[in-house]
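Quick note —
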Amino acid sequence: MTSPGTQYPKVADRVAGITGRVRERSGASPTVYVDATGVGLPVVDLLLEKIRGGQVVAVYCTYGDRRTEAVE
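Predicted structure written out below.
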């Protein structure tokens, strides 16, 4: 577990380690959904570098009355 104030690279390493163990144990490629709102985009970039064999999806939380999806 990481504590508040943990630096982003350490968080990315921790998440990458967890997803790696999930892949080893289950054979499944995990999908990680990351809040990219505000300063979250650098975290998404770090995770894209660190996570192998999984998918990172940036999620933007904004005001609205319905869900919209953008496919890249």
